[in-house]
Design brief:
Radius of gyration of chain C: 23 Å
Chains: A mainly alpha, B mainly alpha, C alpha+beta
Order of helices and strands of chain A: HHHHHHHHHHHHH
Oligomer: heterotrimer
Strand content of chain A: under 5%
Distance between the termini of chain A: 6 Å
Number of strands of chain C: 21
Strand order of the largest sheet of chain C: 8-9-10-1-11-19-12
Chain lengths: 315, 292, 512
């Protein structure tokens, strides 16, 4: 097992290396450089030249990349061109916010998604099922940014119960404040995910319900609640873990739209800001962190798999 | 040809028999007609009248007016063109690139499979939206850029489904038979396997169309979509969001049309899957070949 | 009288209303209470270097640093870190007496060496940033003793320009001058506690501050909002006490909801910048047509909620060169525009052979660019918008890589030749028009203003000439003035000081 994990971790290195070079190359293909934003629109030619030299942007791209790589290998991701703060520190400030939102959204999604899936799987042809499968269609069809706007309109503009813009308040520091500023973005993002989860779980529940072992259990007279709650659930959980993991991995960088609607200080918005100001070191750092998080979460999901289902063995 | 036509007719009849799908199809037809005949309709999406800006819905402007006094309904109708154009274009791009990749990967199954699928995995690892934004940053904001960015984001879906189909079909009798007659790999992939793998690809096309419309709207919402004054639903939501206090309907009404369009596509897609699934379970292995 | 009642607060009189506030400030300041002041800002500051004077830094500079001298909102010079300034009769030199008993945040005493180090930094093209261009008039400097500094100029400089220069200079702690971008090194009323980039900035009162009884509030917290609407919602819900530098549109809405609005004396002027070295814009008659193509009333209404004034020249109403008559002469008139376009002799294809560059990150620019596009459409010139965001836009602007674009200019309430600090109005090294300057008449007109050190009539004639040349050459078409650095505050807040450049000054603010 340890060997497997180590090998998986080791396999990440070439991917990251290739990705980092690709990002570097891509950044240089994008029109507009960081200097203009740094010096401002009224700068003179001397100032521009000085800034280019100061930030080492006059060197060939390969030299800049090698320089960056050498430092990054030692854990130094450099300073943001714009704010002159260490890139890792900037990311470190945003990552907890992103994780907190992702977890809250997953929580909302599970609370809505699991009951919906179970109810519609247990009684596949009832009116309840129609209603609930309508829910997943709706959850997936309503664009998150529009749902966000509607929630803001209702809870922030009309009722004034919740803030329209979210800040990051660490949950353990002030749970109530954290919930207040998390509520709307978490509901927005969670609703969408609940649609995916409900659809997925429903399909695998129905699949499992047709399996032989369920028939056997029924024949033995095991109570229906126990069949659903224990036998079916346990086996349906396996693919479910994957989906939750994938969602989680996707949120690290992919919750940009929700973050934009609520101006939430997540990693995705940091990256978009960095792209907009062409803050090269910050772009690099953000994308690499997103990739590493994606790969680590995938690895964790595989580990969980093995834990839930002892039949699976990694070598 | 007539056979295909008859099949489409049959499919359509079965779709219409389902209430949800019929409603969806009806709404989509309405949107498509409005978009197609937009120029004939008495709506001007560009005519400004600053004195009459941000008006609420009225008999004259059913959806109200925007910050430049333009008719929001007219912009929603012309916005449908942007959305549908992106959807159709993106599906074509994704299918033209994704299907051959998937076919080749599945057909050869050796190192070529690994290589192609690793590329697809990398494409999957970065969130769609970030990838599309990066691409638009390189290409510049335009209808074409939005279409290409969304299309490329749709490649993995087609590639994976095409690959899965090939893997399932390549060992079947009729394929080995063609191979035995000395059919070239290209002939086998495109003339023998592809026609038999069409159904799931059609469903994927519909799924991607709804993703494309959503993604285009999201890009426009983030400010990197089709540039103004060309109307786009996402752009209208973006601008409308900053007038939530002055004109709340501005951001709400275009959103309803967008949501209904996506729901319609989704309902049709699921109904099709259900119909095709039933065919699949009804049909035995042998008749798959006979369905050519 | 630190607050204007809503009735008094006429929109047109904003700038003047601001001016009448300042005199009464100290009296009321004593009744104000301290506490924790929460301010919403809409931009992330670039860094702590006071020589990087860009809008994004406006909320911090005057709270961490002090200038050598200050202006009242009416433009009257006042002592700050310099207690006296003596300009020689030939206007080639100024001698400053420095305030004693002042210390930097690090504990270093404020002495002449810091002013010298600051001048040194400003004169260095690599480090001088926005100050570097202003240093071009300076020949050398010296410090006869610890509390005296003399600055010599290369040629006689109008007095107002010398004062502007002193007001622009912010002494930096010589010990911290090399790290000033990341660690503030000033004498200001507040010191840095903590910064979370993109989120917040926390400052606390400087206990050793030299101005008596200031600052009033002990804790000053800036929260960065990326959206105007969210910032005003935060004000309405009581999550912040002040919104600084929000949009005019929100200010109008919040004023109607009972909040206080303060507009400073230093507005910006929106200018339709034309690259006269390119395409149809090389044609003078075509450029002049744009004087009449700007639907200024609509632009002001849609872009700035009507807060500001329509202007045909790049001056705020407070500028000595301001001339009301131009607004009528160069009003929106499509017929006049058509005549000039016909006179240009350009073909229909040439007329539409350009794109309007738009700053996609700025909501107002997107809206007003569409208005101009609509006006052009009406006279049969269909053009496209070239939307760019962030760095891509600024890069195009800085490199002069555009045909035409909207961009605001500042320093429009000061000495008229200061307009030449804005890139499109630069007389040499102009990044858009390049060297040699294609409009020598304009360069000469600016030089004439700079050289007019004689009587009032001579000065007036120089200003009139500059105005005439500006509309004739028509490479910049001003549309309207608008407020930057607007302060919208809850009714608990008192003691707002208006800065000449509309920077945010927190030291006099307190709770009623």
């Amino acid at each position: 097992m340890t060997g497997y994990v180590l090998r998986r971790l080791f396999q990440m290195l070439p991917v990251l290396l290739i990705a980092s070079f690709a990002i570097f190359a891509m950044i240089y293909a994008v029109p507009g450089g960081p200097v203009a934003v740094i010096v401002g629109e009224n700068a003179g030619p001397e100032e521009i030249a000085a800034a280019i030299q100061r930030y080492g942007l006059d060197r060939p791209m390969v030299v800049q990349y090698a320089d960056w790589l050498g430092r990054a290998a030692l854990g130094d991701f450099g300073l943001s061109l714009h704010s002159r703060q260490p890139v890792l520190q900037l990311i470190g400030e945003r990552l907890p916010a992103t994780l907190q939102l992702a977890l809250a959204a997953i929580f909302v999604a599970l609370v809505i998604g699991i009951p919906v899936a179970i109810a519609s799987a247990v009684k596949p042809n009832s009116w309840l099922n129609r209603l609930l499968s309508g829910w997943s269609a709706l959850a997936l069809g309503v664009p998150t940014f529009w749902l966000g706007i509607l929630l803001i309109l209702l809870f922030a503009v009309e009722l004034r119960w919740l803030p329209s813009a979210s800040r990051h308040v660490p949950f353990w520091e002030s749970p109530l404040d954290a919930l207040r500023s998390l509520a709307l973005p978490a509901i927005t993002l969670g609703t969408y995910v609940s649609g995916i989860l409900a659809r997925f779980l429903r399909a695998s529940l129905i699949g499992e319900a047709r399996a032989d072992y369920v028939r056997t259990a029924r024949a033995k007279g095991v109570p229906e609640n126990r069949i659903v709650g224990f036998h079916i659930m346990r086996n349906a959980l396996l693919p479910f873990v994957t989906i939750v993991g994938l969602m989680m991995a996707n949120f690290i960088g992919g919750a940009v739209v929700t973050e934009a609607v609520f101006t939430y200080p997540g990693l995705g918005r940091l990256l978009i800001q960095a792209i907009s100001t062409r803050d090269y070191p910050l772009i690099q750092g953000c994308i690499l962190v997103i990739l590493v998080a994606y790969m680590l979460i995938n690895l964790t999901v595989d580990m969980l798999y093995a834990w839930i289902d002892p039949r699976i063995e990694y070598r | 040809m007539t056979e295909t036509l008859a099949r489409i007719k049959g499919l359509l009849r079965r779709l219409l028999a389902r209430r949800g799908a019929a409603l969806g199809l009806g709404f989509l037809t309405l949107v498509a007609l409005a978009a197609g005949f937009a120029t004939v309709l008495p709506f001007d999406p560009l005519s400004q009248s600053v004195a009459a800006s941000l008006l609420p819905p009225s008999a004259e402007n059913w959806f109200g007016t925007d910050e430049l006094g333009r008719d929001i309904l007219a912009r929603v109708i012309y916005g449908a063109r942007t959305s549908l154009l992106t959807a159709v274009g993106a599906v074509i791009i994704a299918a033209l690139i994704g299907v051959p990749i998937g076919l080749a990967a599945g057909f050869y199954g050796d190192w070529r499979d690994s290589l192609l699928m690793r590329c697809i995995d990398v494409l999957l690892a970065l969130p769609n939206i970030l990838f599309a934004m990066a691409l638009i940053a390189v290409l510049g904001r335009s209808q074409g850029a939005a279409l290409i960015a969304v299309g490329i984001a749709g490649i993995p879906g087609f590639a994976r489904i095409a690959r899965a189909q090939v893997m399932a079909l390549r060992q079947l009798d009729f394929v080995t038979a063609v191979r035995g007659f000395g059919g070239s790999p290209g002939y086998i992939m495109f003339r023998t396997i592809l026609p038999n793998a069409l159904s799931p690809l059609v469903v994927q096309a519909i799924v991607l169309a709804s993703i494309a419309i959503l993604l285009e709207a999201a890009l426009a919402f983030l400010g990197v979509g089709v540039p103004p004054p060309t109307p786009s639903w996402g752009e209208m939501l973006r601008t409308g969001k900053s007038y939530l206090y002055e004109a709340p309907t501005y951001a709400v009404l275009p959103g309803i049309v967008l949501t209904l369009t996506i729901l319609s596509l989704d309902t049709i897609g699921r109904a099709l899957t259900a119909i095709l699934d039933r065919d699949e379970t009804d049909a035995s292995g042998e008749t798959i070949g006979g369905r050519r | 009288m630190t607050k204007l009642s809503r009735r008094q607060f006429g929109m047109a009189g904003l700038a003047l209303a601001g001016a009448s506030l300042a005199g009464a400030l100290p009296a009321s300041a004593q009744q104000l209470k301290g506490g924790r002041l929460r301010v919403a800002v809409l931009s992330e500051l670039a860094n702590y270097d006071p020589q990087q004077l860009s809008t994004v830094n406006f909320h911090v500079i005057k709270n961490l640093y002090d200038s050598l001298i200050e202006y009242t909102p009416e433009g009257k010079p006042e002592p700050s870190l310099a207690t006296e300034w003596t300009i020689t009769p030939d206007k080639t030199s100024v001698t400053l007496k420095l305030r004693s008993g002042v210390t930097f945040h690090s504990g270093t005493p404020f002495k002449a060496d810091s002013v010298l180090a600051t001048l040194q930094k400003g004169a260095d093209p690599k480090r001088g940033k926005n100050v570097f261009a202003t240093m071009s008039i300076v020949k050398d400097w010296s410090a006869p003793d610890d509390s005296t500094v003399t600055i010599n100029f290369k040629a006689p400089v109008p007095e107002r320009q010398i004062l502007d220069f002193l007001q622009f200079l912010i002494p930096i702690d010589p010990k911290g001058i090399d790290t000033v971008e990341t660690v503030p090194a000033g004498t200001g009323p507040y010191t840095l506690v903590n910064r979370a980039v993109g989120q917040s900035l926390t400052l606390k009162a400087n206990p050793k501050y030299w101005r008596e009884k200031q600052p009033i509030v002990q804790d000053l917290v800036f929260t960065v909002f990326s959206e105007d609407a969210s910032a005003s919602a935060a004000l309405e819900s009581g999550a912040v006490d002040i919104v600084y530098n929000g949009s005019s549109r929100s200010a109008v809405r919040l004023k109607n909801a009972g909040f206080q609005v303060f507009a400073g004396p230093g507005p910006l002027v929106q200018v339709f910048r034309i690259n006269s070295t390119r395409g149809p814009f090389r044609n003078k008659a075509f450029r002049q047509a744009f004087n009449h193509l700007m639907d200024r009333a609509s632009i002001l209404r849609v872009g700035y909620a009507g807060m500001g004034k329509v202007v045909a020249l790049p001056w705020a109403p407070a500028s000595p060169a301001y001339d009301e008559s131009y607004n009528a002469t160069y009003a929106y008139d499509l017929e006049k525009a058509k005549k000039l376009i016909a006179a240009s002799g350009l073909s229909a294809d040439e007329l539409k052979s350009w794109k309007l560059l738009v700053n996609g990150s700025d909501e107002a620019s997107v809206a007003i660019s569409q208005i101009v596009q609509g006006s052009l459409q009406k006279i049969g010139i269909p053009i496209e918008l070239d939307m760019r965001q962030g760095a891509e836009y600024v890069t195009a602007l800085l490199g002069g890589d555009f045909a035409a674009t909207f961009g605001a200019v500042g320093n429009v309430q000061k000495f008229p030749s200061r307009v030449a600090t804005n890139s499109i109005y630069r007389t040499s090294g102009n990044p858009v028009l390049k060297d040699p300057h294609p409009h020598p008449d304009y360069v000469a007109a600016i030089a004439r203003v700079d050289g007019a050190s004689g009587g009032a009539a001579e000065v007036k004639a120089a200003y009139d000439n500059l105005n005439k040349v500006m509309v004739a050459e028509a490479f910049g078409i001003p549309t309207n003035s608008y407020d930057v650095g607007l302060i919208v505050a809850s009714d608990k807040i008192g003691g707002v000081t208006l800065d000449i450049d509309n920077l945010f000054v927190a030291r006099t603010i307190g709770f009623k």
